[in-house]
Amino acid sequence: MKKIELPILSSFLDNGYVIEEVKTNYLSGKDELKVARENGGKVIWSTTYIEGQLEKIISLYVFENPATITRKTEFFLHEILQTSFFAYSAKKNLVMKIIELERLLEGEAKDDLSKALRKVMDYRNSFAHGSLHYEFGSGCFLSFFSSRPRKEALDDSYWETLEGYYSNASSVLEKMFRSLRRKFKNKSNQSSEPT
Known about the structure:
5-stranded mixed beta sheet; single chain; 5 strands; 195 residues; alpha+beta
């Protein structure tokens, strides 16, 4: 597979002053900035994966057997659920409502998932709309706007916290999907048993 190279702007700062801005097809200078850009891409792709997990749970809840694709399920998936007007936050809120109705999670576990899903979108937005720069003597930073201008140091602690939120959200959503699928399968088996 071809590794693409697109023009990007790399900023290097010293005591808050830009000492070099390089627009190139390659990353010159700091390996940390290259790793941060690669990690940022993974953040965006992983968010897309988690959004797909939310869609799977919603589809399962609405249709109880999304393995059976009908014109209605296809319409729902492509014309409603996967469109831009059905935003991530709406999907998150709907899944949290399904959790409540089906009693899939309670208390702290439910709160933890809600927080992880919120943080996933916060991280995604900061990388999608922010800018990366390297400060000599301090390391790599992400600058973005979220209610106010923010600047995050992209150190190991930052990445470990981010990984924790993504891993938690993804694994809990996968368990919920399996639990809901099992519940609907049992319900289907009970209704097909002769009385």
